[in-house]
Design goal:
The protein has helices at about 30-55, 80-90, 95-105, 110-120, 145-155, 170-175, 215-220, 220-230, 250-260, 265-280, 280-285; strands spanning about 130-135, 135-140, 180-185, 195-200, 205-210, 235-240. With about 290 residues, it is of the alpha+beta class. β1 (about 130-135) and β2 form a beta hairpin. α3 crosses α9 (about 250-260). The chain is globular. The relative contact order is 0.16.
Length: about 290
């Protein structure tokens, strides 16, 4: 979430009214006031620069990224409309692009997307990405090691309902937050008709609530790929839609496009899913 600062704008001397007025005892303080205004302007300018530095990621702890709850500036891309991008990614994924576009534009998948969103709200999701690892909530783009400890404990039967029993420093910090970004006590999250990747009978189920236009959701995909590579059929990955439409104007339609892609085959749909995230900078600044 971006933080805005009000910069004090110091007016140049020539813009100050020079209309003659009777001399008063206050005149001797004018030079001091001007100097104070200049010092204040300089200080706030430096503070604004520091904030921009932090926002750029150069001055913050990047071990974890919070769930997205604010707007993000979209980089310039090579497409002017979302449909152009969807068509290209559909073709590259082996999908029938005309069929997919027709499905997306019809709005027939809006109810399915809303179903995922409502389910997310019911289990406490407020931002994206949000994960439930055998029901244990992890809210944000956490690093691989944080996921790994939770998954390993689930696999070896040492999972705990108390976040303080976990050793990963990110999990401990997240569990102590208010509200917490790690809740060890499991919630019940139904898989339903969501697309899955991994073993159908896996001991560990990772449910992801995500937004295709969310930058943090895009960043965490490399971690998800690590999980799939490391655990294979031991883990079942489930993807659910949670479009933050109030800040991401294309999130709803890209979610509907994903639901349309699923109708043409799960493997092709996952390729389409990856293309949307990998190429997020190409389409996130387009129009519908």
């Amino acid at each position: 979430m971006r933080m805005a600062l009000a910069r004090v704008k110091s007016e140049p001397v020539e813009n100050i009214s020079t209309k003659p007025t009777p001399k008063t005892g206050l005149e001797k303080f004018i030079p001091v006031m001007v100097v104070l205004m200049m010092v204040m302007s300089f200080y706030l300018g430096n503070l604004s620069s520091k904030v921009k530095y932090l926002e750029s990621g150069n001055g913050k702890n990047t071990n974890t990224q919070p769930a997205a709850q604010g707007n993000q500036a979209a980089p310039a891309g090579k497409y002017t409309t979302l449909s152009q991008a969807i068509t290209a990614y559909a073709k590259a994924s082996g999908l029938d692009s005309n069929k997919l576009i027709k499905c997306m534009e019809s709005g027939e998948k809006a109810a399915a997307v809303k179903g995922d969103y409502d389910q997310g709200v019911s289990v406490g999701v407020q931002g994206t990405p949000a994960f439930f690892i055998n029901g244990r909530f992890l809210g944000g783009a956490f690093p691989f090691d944080s996921f790994k400890e939770i998954i390993d404990r689930e696999l070896n039967g040492t999972g705990s309902n108390n976040y303080q029993d976990y050793t990963d420093t990110n999990l401990k910090s997240a569990g102590a937050m208010n509200p917490p970004a790690f809740i060890a006590k499991p919630a019940t999250v139904e898989v339903g008709k969501a697309a899955i990747k991994g073993g159908n009978n896996a001991k560990v189920t990772v449910v992801e609530f995500s937004d295709y236009q969310c930058p943090y959701c895009s960043r965490v995909q490399d971690t998800i790929k690590q999980l799939v590579s490391a655990y294979g059929d031991k883990v079942k990955l489930v993807f659910k839609n949670f479009p933050l439409s109030q800040i991401h104007p294309l999130a709803q339609k890209t979610a509907e496009a994903w639901e349309c892609a699923k109708d043409q085959g799960t493997d092709k749909a996952w390729k389409f899913h990856d293309a949307l995230f990998v190429n997020q900078g190409e389409w996130s600044g387009t129009t519908l």
